[in-house]
Write a structure and sequence with these properties.
Elements: H1 15-24, E1 29-31, H2 39-51, E2 58-61, H3 64-67, H4 71-80, H5 94-101, E3 111-114, H6 121-129, E4 134-137, H7 151-166, E5 176-179, H8 191-207, E6 212-218, H9 223-240, E7 245-251, H10 261-278, E8 282-284, H11 297-319, H12 333-352, H13 358-368, E9 385-389, E10 395-400, H14 417-424, H15 426-432
């Protein structure tokens, strides 16, 4: 158990300011997903991330009980000494968390809370109680893919939560909220919808008082398409959020992960290279152990180091153009940016036209199928859209249902279950190709 003097408040820094200053200095901020239930282990992990040879921010990733609001189960697990899959922020006494953060969280190392909850009201209150001001999620992105909470209920919960966080402005650093809308389902969602959802959730945050936000985008199947998506996202953020402080955060691939160390490392490096080429300011990393188990602290630090090194190697190339003039499949990088921009703009405008209140507009858009997340089984999702991976490895629409965008005519034939399973493992197979069993991840304790 952590002991020693416990400060009543933790010295803090505005998360958005830290990332903006790093970007202005030419550094990509790298961040783990790390979370442990034991306070001493959590504190040691934060120390290790802070000491890593990279520009880093810290993470408190919460456990599954806290994500679903079962705080009694989290407290019972702590009392029984049961290890959880994250840090139970609400179940731990605030003094314990302040001790975890003491002399770690500060102006040179801000810490963000990551959770995955459709009802984050108690999480937001708890993080403010311990002196933190940065977290992430969204009313759609933390509802549809993760459970059965009605979307209407999630929008209500997130409205209250955003207002709670925004009300902390003026009593410390500017609160910061990151959208998860650019990561819907983790994979097989074409960039236009991801970009649109990220912008729409940022507009939701602004409507409820937030003034510092980040917009997410998750690495998909093709680097050129991803670079175009992030550039389109930045353009749209500039148009829709001119009055906010914002940056773009890229997530390393969230689907079926490579099982070999070289394959997993290469995928992480591609994410870092893509983030730099596209002008993102922050990268959420993944470790080579992701396909096997919860990674150790050292594995997280190794991933941070690898991502930062890849970003540093990429930066000189960006000055020289950073992209081929002609891409496989025809056209140039600007053509791909234009495609994603037009698709995302259409989805955003179609949603905003439904109601002046952004929360009600989102509800109406999903009820009408104007927004439709492929392969999402939530009752409030229309479930009429589908995607495929084309011959160049890019994600495209096979069906768009009632969304106001066309499907790609290049879809070869109706999709089968076998096609879907093959698409789900596309990135894993590509990155692991040629790797032998001697390069497979061994259990590293």
């Amino acid at each position: 158990m952590l002991t020693g003097p416990t400060p009543a408040a933790v010295t803090d820094v505005a998360f958005g300011d830290f990332v903006s200053q790093a970007a202005a200095s030419g550094h990509l901020v790298v961040q783990p997903r790390m979370g442990f239930s034991d306070p001493e282990r959590m504190r040691a992990g934060l120390h290790a991330v802070r000491s890593a040879p990279a520009v880093t921010v810290g993470t408190l990733t919460l456990d599954s009980y806290t994500r679903v609001g079962d705080h009694r189960a989290a407290r019972d697990a702590l009392a029984a000494g049961t290890d959880l899959n994250g840090y139970p922020l609400v179940a731990h006494d605030p003094a314990t968390t302040r001790a975890v953060l003491r002399d770690v969280h500060g102006p040179e190392f801000p810490v963000q809370v990551r959770h995955g909850s459709a009802d984050p009201r108690r999480i937001f209150t708890a993080l403010l109680d311990v002196g933190l001001h940065s977290t992430e999620g969204g009313p759609v992105s933390y509802c549809l893919p993760y459970g059965r909470t009605p979307l209407r209920e999630s929008v209500r919960n997130w409205t209250e939560s955003c207002q709670t966080l925004a009300a902390a402005a003026g009593r410390g650093p500017e609160p910061h909220l990151e959208t998860f809308g650019g990561c819907l389902m983790g994979q097989l969602c074409p960039p236009g919808l991801l970009v649109a959802m990220s912008v729409l959730e940022a507009l939701f945050f602004r409507a409820h008082g937030l003034r510092s936000v980040s917009l997410s985008y998750a690495q998909q199947t093709d680097t050129d398409q991803d670079v175009a998506a992030v550039r389109a996202l930045r353009r749209l953020a500039g148009e829709y959020l001119p009055d906010l402080q914002w940056h773009v955060v890229v997530y390393t691939y969230m689907g079926v992960y490579p099982r070999s160390v070289p394959g997993a490392t290469r995928l992480l490096e591609l994410a870092a290279e893509m983030a730099v080429r596209a002008g993102a300011a922050r990268l959420i990393v993944k470790t080579a152990a992701e396909a096997h188990r919860i990674p150790t602290v050292q594995e997280n630090v190794t991933a941070l180091r690898a991502a930062a090194a890849a970003a540093d190697r990429t930066r000189p190339d960006v000055g020289a153009g950073g992209s081929a003039n002609v891409l496989p499949g025809g056209g140039g990088p600007d053509d791909l940016v234009g495609q994603v921009y037009r698709e995302a703009s259409t989805l955003i405008e179609a949603t905003l036209a439904l109601h002046a209140d952004i929360g009600r507009a989102l509800l109406s858009a999903f009820a009408r199928g104007h927004l439709d997340v492929p392969y999402c089984l939530h009752p409030d999702n229309a479930g009429r859209s589908a995607t495929f991976i084309d011959e160049w490895g890019r994600l495209r629409w096979a069906r768009t249902g009632n969304m106001p965008i066309p499907a790609d005519i290049a879809c070869p034939r109706p999709l089968t279950a076998s096609d879907l399973m093959k698409a789900l493992s596309h990135v894993e197979r590509r990155c692991d190709a040629g790797q032998t069993t001697t390069t497979r991840v061994e259990v590293e304790r």
